Amino acid sequence: MEGPGRALILGIETSCDETAAALVTDDGEIRANVVSSQADLHARYGGVVPEVASRRHLELVAPVVREALGEADATLDDVDRIAVTQGPGLIGALLVGLSAAKAIAWSRRLPLVPVDHLRGHVASLYLRPDPLEPPFLCLLASGGHTLLLDVRGYDDEHVLGTTLDDAAGEAFDKGARLLGLGYPGGRELDRLAREGDPAAYDFPVARVPGLDFSFSGLKTALLYATRDLSPEQLQARRADLAASYQRAIVRALVARVREAAEQSGARRVAVVGGVAANSELRASLPDAALAPLPLCTDNAAMIASAARFAHRLSYPAYLGLDAYASR
Ligand SMILES: Nc1ncnc2c1ncn2[C@@H]1O[C@H](COP(=O)(O)OP(=O)(O)OP(=O)(O)O)[C@@H](O)[C@H]1O
Ligand SMILES: [Mg+2]
Known about the structure:
Elements: E1 8-13, E2 18-25, E3 30-37, H1 39-43, H2 50-71, E4 79-87, H3 91-108, E5 112-116, H4 117-123, E6 136-141, E7 146-153, E8 156-162, H5 168-178, H6 186-193, H7 216-227, H8 231-264, E9 269-272, H9 279-284, E10 289-290, H10 301-307
Parallel strand pairs: 1-4, 4-5, 6-9, 9-10
Antiparallel strand pairs: 1-2, 2-3, 6-7, 7-8
Helix pairs in contact: 2-3, 4-10, 5-7, 5-8, 6-8, 7-8
The structure holds adenosine-5'-triphosphate and magnesium ion.
Adenosine-5'-triphosphate binds next to helix 4, helix 5 and helix 6.
C-alpha cells in the first residue's frame, strides 16, 4: 500500500442519523469508510428525532474520525483537505459535522471543502475500482429526495424531475411501518418482498405530468389494503403486500428513468441513494451503473469523493461557513 505522501481527503458526514468519516485519495480510492448508524436509537420513535441525532453526532464524531484514520493506517499529517456535508439535512446534525470539520481544518491550517449531500450521493459513482464519468442520466432516490438528474459534468447537473410529495425512500419507510417492519424499513421490506407475490395486489401509482414523481397515493392505497385486516390476516398477507407495494414503487421509478433517457438521449443511466440498494430496482435496470451497495445509504466516502471536484476554501475563509437545511 502506498502510504503517506499520497494526499488523503478526510470526509465527514452528519446530515441525518449516520455519523460517518472516510479517507479517500485524490484519484478516488477508498482507504477507510466508517459509518456509525443511530438507527437503533431512533427506532422506538419511528423516525429520526433531530435533537437526539445532534447529541449523538457530538458523541460520535471524534471517535469515528479516529477510527477512520486507524483503518487507513494514517494520521492527520497525511490529510491534505477536509470535506464535509454542508446541507441539505437536519440543521443541528449538520452543524456538528461542519464544526468538527472546521476545527480539524483550522488546527492544521488545511483547506476545507463544503459538499452538497446530493452531489455526494452522485459522487458515490466516481470512486474506484469502477468509476463512472459524466455525462449520464442519474436517478437519485433516497430517504429525503427523488430526483432525475442530467449530470453533464462533475459539478454540473440539471434537475429533470423530482417528487411532488413523498420521496421514494420515504414511501418504502411508510409502507414498512404499515406492515409493522420497524424503522427505517426499506431494507426489511425488500427482504420480505422476496417471499411474496408482486401480482397479489394492484397498487396504483399516480401519473403526474413531465418527469416528476408522486408516491403519497400509493401509501394511502396500502393503508386501505391493511386497515381492515385482523393481525392474523395481516401476518398472512404481509409478504404479498410488501412485494406488490415494492413492485409499484420500482415500476414508477423505472418508467420515469426510461422516459427521461429517451427524452434526453442519454447513453448512460445511473442510480444512487439509499433506494439504489433495493434488489428489485437493481434487477430492473441491468444496464445501469449502480452505486456500490455500501455506498448507497449515507456515508462519508461519497462526500470526500465529491470534494475531489469541488472548490476548496483556504484558511480562514471557511470559519464563517453555515449549514443549510434545504437546497
Ligand atoms: N434495500 C432497500 N430497498 C428500499 N429502500 C431502501 C433499501 N435500503 C435502504 N433503503 C431506504 O433508503 C433510505 C435511506 O437512504 P439515504 O441514507 O440515502 O437517505 P437520507 O440520507 O436519509 O436522505 P437524503 O439523502 O435525501 O438526505 C431510507 O428511506 C431506506 O428505507
Ligand atoms: Mg442521503
